[in-house]
Backbone:
C-alpha cells in the first residue's frame, strides 16, 4: 500500500481535553501514527512518501474561508492574549446556540474560538494548523497517486479529519481530509465519489460538507448518536437534502456491536455505493471500533480488520484511505495495517 505520510503530525500535540468535567490527558496522541508507521515498515507494506505541496484553494472548496482564516491565525491570537498562553492549549468554553448570532464575528478571541468549534475536547496547539494543513496535503497527494493509476493509497496523518465541518472544528479534527480527497477526485473528473466512513464515530463533518450534493455520496457506520459522540448528527433518517437527497446513508449501530453485525451493515453500505455508481472510493479509516478502544463501544477484534479490508477491496473501486480515529494506542498499528493488508495492493 502506497502511503503518504505526514511527517509534521507531531507538531499537533494536545496536552488535555475536557472529559466529564475534568481536564484529562488527550486520547489523540502522536504515538498513534508512529505505531501505524512502524507496523507498515515491519510488514514491508509498500513505500512511505512525503506529500506534495497543497494549493489552499482546494481547502476553500470544503471549508468556509472565514473558518480557514481563523484556524490559520488562532494560535498567534491565543498567545497575543497573554504570553503565558504559549504553554497552554486553547480550548473553547462558549458557544452560540439556538437563536444566537453566528453571522457577526465577535472581536473576542474566546468567542470566535467557540463560534468555530463544537466541543471542548479538541485542543488547539501551536502546531495544530501546520499539522492539519500538511495532513490535507497528504490526502490530496494520495488522491493524485490513485488518479495516476495506483489502485489505492493511504494518507497516514493526524490530527484526524472527519468531524471537521464546513466552519467548525471538534472531535480532534480541524481539516476534513476525507472531504479534501473526495473533492480532489471530483475536480479531476470522477463524476461521482463515494466516501465510506468506518470510524466508530459518525463523520458529521463529511456528511455536512456534502449533504446537499449528489456528486459525493456519504455512507457511515457508527455508534448510534443517541448514545455516542457526536450526538447531534448521524441518525438513519438523514438522507441528504435537495439534489443530495438519497446520497447520504447512515447506519447507526448499538453499543456492543460485534464484527458479524458490523459486517452486515458494511455490506448494506457497499450495496448503496454500488447503486449510485461511484467511480472512486474514499475510506475514512478509523479503528476505534476495536474492542479495546478506551472511548468507544464496538467489539471488533484485530483479525476482523483483515476481513474488513477484503470486503472493501471487493467494491472494486480506486480507493483512497484516510486515517481517522483509534485510541487503543498499542493496537492501532496492527489493526490499521490489517485493513490495508486485507485490501491488498
Ligand atoms: N466519551 C475521532 O475518532 N470525545 N474523534 C468523546 C466520549 C470525542 C473522536 C468522548 C471523540 C472524538 C476522529
Ligand atoms: Zn472516532
Residues:
Amino acid at each position: 500500500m502506497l502511503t503518504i505520510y505526514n511527517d509534521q503530525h507531531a507538531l499537533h500535540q494536545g496536552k488535555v481535553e475536557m472529559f466529564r468535567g475534568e481536564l484529562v490527558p488527550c486520547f489523540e496522541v502522536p504515538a498513534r501514527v508512529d505505531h501505524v508507521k512502524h507496523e507498515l515498515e515491519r510488514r514491508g507494506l509498500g513505500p512511505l512518501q512525503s506529500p506534495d505541496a497543497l494549493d489552499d484553494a482546494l481547502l476553500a472548496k470544503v471549508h468556509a474561508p472565514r473558518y480557514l482564516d481563523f484556524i490559520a491565525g488562532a494560535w498567534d491570537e491565543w498567545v497575543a492574549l497573554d504570553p503565558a498562553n504559549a504553554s497552554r492549549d486553547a480550548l473553547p468554553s462558549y458557544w452560540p446556540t439556538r437563536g444566537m448570532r453566528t453571522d457577526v464575528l465577535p472581536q473576542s478571541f474566546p468567542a470566535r474560538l467557540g463560534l468555530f468549534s463544537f466541543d471542548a475536547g479538541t485542543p488547539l496547539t501551536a502546531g495544530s494548523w501546520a499539522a492539519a494543513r500538511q495532513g490535507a496535503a497528504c490526502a490530496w497527494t494520495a488522491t493524485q497517486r490513485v488518479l495516476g493509476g495506483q489502485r489505492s493509497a493511504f494518507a497516514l496523518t493526524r490530527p484526524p479529519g472527519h468531524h471537521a465541518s464546513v466552519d467548525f472544528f471538534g472531535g480532534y479534527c480541524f481539516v476534513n481530509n476525507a472531504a479534501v480527497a473526495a473533492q480532489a477526485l471530483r475536480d479531476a473528473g470522477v463524476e461521482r465519489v463515494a466516501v465510506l466512513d468506518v470510524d466508530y464515530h459518525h463523520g458529521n463533518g463529511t456528511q455536512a460538507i456534502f449533504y446537499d450534493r449528489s456528486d459525493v455520496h456519504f455512507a457511515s457506520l457508527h455508534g448510534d448518536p443517541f448514545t455516542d459522540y457526536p450526538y447531534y448528527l448521524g441518525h438513519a433518517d438523514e438522507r441528504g437534502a435537495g439534489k443530495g437527497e438519497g446520497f447520504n446513508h447512515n447506519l447507526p449501530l448499538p453499543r456492543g456491536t460485534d464484527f458479524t453485525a458490523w459486517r452486515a451493515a458494511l455490506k448494506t453500505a457497499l450495496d448503496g455505493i454500488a447503486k449510485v455508481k461511484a467511480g472512486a472510493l474514499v475510506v475514512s479509516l478509523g479503528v476505534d471500533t476495536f474492542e479495546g478502544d478506551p472511548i468507544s463501544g464496538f467489539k471488533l477484534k484485530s483479525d476482523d480488520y483483515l476481513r474488513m479490508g477484503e470486503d472493501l477491496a471487493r467494491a472494486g473501486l480506486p480507493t483512497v484511505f484516510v486515517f481517522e480515529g483509534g485510541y487503543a494506542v498499542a493496537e492501532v498499528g496492527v489493526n490499521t495495517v490489517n485493513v490495508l493488508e486485507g485490501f491488498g495492493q
About this structure: The domain at 2-62+125-343 is CATH 3.40.800.20 (Arginase; Chain A). The mean pLDDT is 98. The first helix runs from residue 31 to 42.
